[in-house]
């Protein structure tokens, strides 16, 4: 012992143990890091904020040391006092949090909503009664909800303003805002070459460059804490920066601005250090949040005033003045349209003022007006791109597909009149989905085709693609042109892929359309189970995006290759590197008429400006957006042929998509439901699923085909085994467990609530199973989110194994057997008690029935009461421990780690070895 002690040193301070500072070995680690002083360890734990050893992950244990005068049992008054203090703290916390909730969820939205309403009623009297309105208790909840919406909107407006500022600072303002050096300032919009501006934005704005480095820290602080005092400051540097940059054009002033920025950034750093979310919202117990509430309310008012009230009234007066009032009112969206009109007018006014200020050389106000104009322009463009464009697409899709659902324009008009908001939103959503799928298809095309073929479409994957920068830099007429072009392209594709096929189906298969989208309540198939089928089986299979995408890509590639060879456009479509091995004949044809490589697509000339801009943007970032190709004879003619071929293919594809799944689904469903009509969603889903399955099987078979018969046989065997295993598991996990679960739920909750005692409850296993599937899914999700216990680890293991490595034995032993036995027990025990034990005791038949029917909820109640009681007892024990520690704890001692095998004699684990 002595010799060992001499070598033993603390792993932290490297000194030896002394009688008053002994060494401990608290974790599994051995060797030179085995020993440690308690003080050193405690300090380290405080520093690292961990409770376990970082190397061996052993949790350090301490035994409490109580003062010697501690009574064996705490006196009752101590317990009472402890209880009282804890109740007191609870009440204080409750009060504080109620205050916080009241402030953030009550006062803020309510004031926002009332102020908003007061501003928009438009009369002076409402302004005077505002203080009274604030305190009125009418429509509290509705106003709160509305107010939340208002606050969220202004918050979003604020965040996007900050972001936009960042974008302007980062990418540099557009040329017309920056040209102090240029002689004629009134050439504002048209004069500079925007292509160059977009391409070399970074190089062209030396005046904006100095503030840029200082800006990011400011942004970082401003972002996480939008709704507090910072917003005011968030605006400040922008103005400072702008004014400073505009007022003085030499470097000195810029330096001054930078100093200012640095100072601000420092300030913010300090503020951000102190400000956390908890502190800001008042969750840390302090009352500072009241100040933040005040800031949010006043800022919100300011935002409403500036961004909603003024534009609305500008728009309103101009609309009234021009006599368009009835049209605007007829649109059901009076406020929105008026506000947008106001914004448009505002933008025009700003341009005019900007021009005027430039004329009289008021640099400062010129700059300010320019920035304001950019803000208005970008927000209008965002509204158009995100709001109006999908809306147009949605309505156009709807109009083109009217015949498919046997509807007419009149129906649509009626539904719009009855619920304008919902109809608009639905159409917008549909349009959004359409635009999204269109964009993802274009992305897919880009992967297949030669870079440069799709020059006329924006590349969303390009790291340099930045729509906001384009909105800032490109002039408005170019955006307008692009917008019209997109509308034409999207619209004609809808015509080609929806309207035309529907007409053709109408002509050739008159009985096929319309699709049946009405729900029949008396349909023989239970809607619920069908929906479940749809949600549980079909959608997940279809959402297996990777495969579908791969597949679509393969199809597109095949199409492109075949079209390329057919039209001799292989080089144009797929580029050079691919046909190196097969391009001899192609080359022979090509080299005679057009020797050398043509970098110049004739179409380039058409969209020169835009394309040049894109090219500039593309080339700047490194990736090559263009690859040379060889042009064959009569190139334009071939391109026209290609487009025609493409149209025909799209037409046929959409024809197949519209008819095949529904056809298959109807045919399959007719076995089940006979001739009655079902919702087309089900038939389509069913048919799609069948198509998907068959195509999947075919591809798998094709992939196996070249490998020979024995391998196919082996694979088939493997697959059959796997499928059999999966079937057994599915039967257990998706069949038996949900059935039992649903039955239990029905017995415990549904039947006692729904069926009176003098009636006999009926159970439908099918329905119970469907409900049980739902419950099982919910329970599994909750388990996976909750803390670690055996069920969670088992489910995670099963998920990790997946279907390919399915472990039947493990699943049955660890998952199915315990769960099923627990469920069966909880089903059987009450039944045995009610039907077997109670009659032998000899009670009246009425009593027997009562017991039979009510035993399940009763037992549930008993179980939950026991659970609550045990929880309370545990809580009380902790409180007791806490009180004891408060009063009598004098210190704690580290517990040495004892190996279990060796310490068999020392039974209790916390067994401190005396030094
Ligand atoms: Zn030490
Ligand atoms: Zn350790």
Write up what this structure looks like.
The chain is an all-alpha fold. It has helices at residues 2-7, 38-48, 76-121, 124-128, 130-135, 140-171, 175-178, 194-199, 201-204, 211-222, 230-247, 251-274, 277-281, 289-322, 325-330, 334-359, 363-400, 409-418, 420-448, 467-473, 476-508, 527-542, 545-567, 570-574, 584-591, 602-606, 608-620, 635-673, 680-704, 709-754, 765-785, 790-801, 808-841, 845-888, and strands spanning 23-24, 36-37, 62-66, 889-894. Helix 10 (211-222) packs antiparallel against helix 11 (230-247). It is built from 34 helices and four strands. The strands form two sheets. It has a two-stranded antiparallel sheet with strand order 1-2. Strands 3-4 form a two-stranded antiparallel ribbon. Among the domains are: 2-61 and 895-904, Zinc/RING finger domain, C3HC4 (zinc finger) (Herpes Virus-1, 2-Layer Sandwich); 106-173 and 208-322, no CATH class; 718-889, no CATH class. The termini are close together.
Element layout with pairings:
Elements: H1 2-7, E1 23-24, E2 36-37, H2 38-48, E3 62-66, H3 76-121, H4 124-128, H5 130-135, H6 140-171, H7 175-178, H8 194-199, H9 201-204, H10 211-222, H11 230-247, H12 251-274, H13 277-281, H14 289-322, H15 325-330, H16 334-359, H17 363-400, H18 409-418, H19 420-448, H20 467-473, H21 476-508, H22 527-542, H23 545-567, H24 570-574, H25 584-591, H26 602-606, H27 608-620, H28 635-673, H29 680-704, H30 709-754, H31 765-785, H32 790-801, H33 808-841, H34 845-888, E4 889-894
Antiparallel strand pairs: 1-2, 3-4
The structure holds zinc ion (2 copies).
């Amino acid at each position: 012992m002595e010799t060992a002690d001499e070598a033993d040193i603390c792993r932290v301070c490297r000194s030896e143990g002394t009688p008053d500072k002994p060494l401990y070995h608290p974790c599994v680690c051995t060797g030179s890091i085995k020993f440690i002083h308690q003080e050193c360890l405690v300090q380290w734990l405080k520093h690292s904020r961990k409770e376990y050893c970082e190397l061996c992950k052993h949790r350090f244990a301490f035994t409490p040391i109580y003062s010697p005068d501690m009574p064996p049992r705490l006196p009752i008054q101590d317990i009472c006092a402890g209880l009282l203090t804890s109740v007191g703290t609870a009440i204080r916390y409750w009060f504080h949090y109620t205050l916080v909730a009241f402030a953030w969820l009550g006062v803020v939205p309510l004031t926002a909503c009332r102020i908003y309403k007061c501003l928009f009623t438009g009369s002076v009297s409402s302004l005077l009664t505002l203080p009274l309105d604030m305190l009125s208790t009418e429509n509290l909840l509705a106003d709160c909800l509305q107010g939340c919406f208002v606050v969220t909107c202004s918050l979003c407006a604020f965040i996007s303003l900050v972001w936009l500022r960042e974008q302007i600072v980062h990418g540099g303002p557009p040329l017309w805002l920056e040209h102090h050096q240029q002689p004629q300032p009134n050439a504002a919009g048209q004069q500079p070459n925007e292509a160059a501006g977009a391409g070399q934005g970074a190089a062209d704005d030396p005046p904006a460059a100095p503030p840029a480095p200082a800006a990011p820290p400011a942004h970082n602080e401003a972002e996480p804490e939008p709704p507090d005092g910072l917003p005011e400051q968030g605006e400040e540097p922008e103005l400072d920066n702008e004014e400073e940059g505009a007022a003085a054009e030499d470097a000195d002033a810029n330096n001054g601005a930078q100093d200012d920025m640095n100072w601000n950034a420092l300030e913010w750093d300090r503020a951000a250090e102190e400000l956390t979310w908890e502190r800001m919202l008042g969750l840390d117990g302090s009352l500072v949040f009241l100040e933040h509430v005040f800031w949010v309310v006043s800022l919100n008012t300011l935002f409403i005033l500036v961004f909603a009230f003024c534009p609305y009234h500008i728009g309103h007066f101009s609309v009234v003045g021009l006599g368009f009032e009835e049209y605007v009112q007829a649109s059901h969206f009076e406020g929105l349209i008026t506000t947008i009109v106001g914004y448009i007018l505002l933008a025009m006014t700003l341009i005019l003022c900007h021009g005027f200020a430039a004329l009289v050389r008021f640099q400062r106000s010129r700059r300010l007006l320019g920035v304001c104009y950019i803000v208005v322009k970008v927000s209008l463009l965002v509204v158009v791109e995100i709001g109006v464009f999908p809306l147009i697409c949605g309505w156009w899709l709807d109009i083109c597909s009217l015949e498919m659902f046997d509807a007419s324009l009149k129906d649509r008009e009626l539904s719009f009149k009855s619920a304008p908001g919902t109809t608009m939103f639905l159409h917008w959503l549909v349009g959004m989905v359409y635009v999204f799928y269109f964009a993802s298809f274009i992305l897919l095309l880009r992967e297949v085709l030669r870079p440069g073929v799709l020059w006329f479409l924006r590349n969303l994957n390009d790291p340099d693609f930045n729509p906001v920068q384009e909105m800032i830099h490109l002039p408005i007429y170019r955006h307008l042109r692009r917008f019209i072009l997109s509308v034409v392209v999207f619209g004609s594709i809808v015509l080609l892929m929806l309207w035309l096929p529907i007409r053709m189906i109408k002509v050739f298969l008159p009985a096929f359309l319309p699709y049946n989208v009405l729900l029949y309540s008396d349909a023989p198939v239970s809607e619920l189970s069908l929906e479940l089928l749809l949600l549980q089986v079909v959608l997940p299979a279809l959402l297996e995006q990777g495969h579908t995408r791969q597949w679509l890509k393969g199809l597109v590639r095949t199409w492109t290759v075949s079209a390329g060879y057919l039209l001799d456009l292989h080089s144009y479509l797929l580029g050079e590197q691919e046909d190196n091995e097969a391009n001899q004949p192609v080359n022979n044809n090509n080299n005679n008429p057009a020797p050398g490589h043509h970098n110049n697509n004739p179409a380039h000339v058409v969209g020169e400006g835009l394309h040049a801009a894109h090219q500039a943007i593309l080339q700047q970032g490194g990736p090559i957006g263009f690859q040379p190709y060889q042009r064959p004879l009569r190139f334009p003619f071939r391109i026209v042929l290609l487009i025609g071929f493409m149209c025909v293919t799209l037409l046929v594809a959409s024809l197949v998509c519209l008819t095949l799944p529904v056809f298959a689904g109807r045919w399959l469903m007719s076995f089940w439901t006979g001739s009655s009509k079902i919702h087309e969603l089900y038939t389509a889903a069913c048919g799609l699923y069948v198509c998907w399955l068959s195509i999947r099987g075919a591809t798998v078979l094709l992939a196996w085909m070249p490998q020979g018969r024995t391998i196919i046989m082996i694979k088939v065997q493997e697959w059959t085994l796997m499928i059999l295993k999966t079937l057994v598991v599915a039967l257990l996990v998706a069949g038996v467990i949900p059935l039992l679960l649903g039955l239990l739920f029905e017995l415990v909750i549904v039947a006692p609530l729904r069926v009176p005692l003098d009636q006999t409850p009926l159970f439908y296993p099918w329905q119970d199973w469907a409900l049980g599937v739902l419950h099982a899914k919910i329970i599994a999700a909750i388990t996976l989110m909750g803390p670690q216990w055996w069920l969670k680890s088992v489910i995670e293991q099963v998920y990790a194994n997946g279907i390919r490595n399915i472990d039947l034995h493990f699943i049955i032993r660890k998952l199915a057997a315990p769960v099923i036995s627990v469920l069966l027990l909880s089903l059987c025990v009450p039944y045995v008690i009610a039907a077997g034990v109670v009659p032998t005791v000899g009670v009246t038949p009425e009593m027997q029935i009562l017991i039979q029917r009510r035993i399940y909820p009763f037992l549930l109640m008993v179980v939950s009461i026991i659970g609550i009681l045990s929880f309370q007892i545990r809580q009380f024990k902790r409180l007791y421990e806490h009180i004891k520690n408060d009063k009598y704890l004098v210190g704690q001692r580290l517990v040495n780690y004892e190996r279990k095998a060796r310490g068999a004699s020392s039974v209790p684990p916390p067994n401190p070895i005396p030094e």
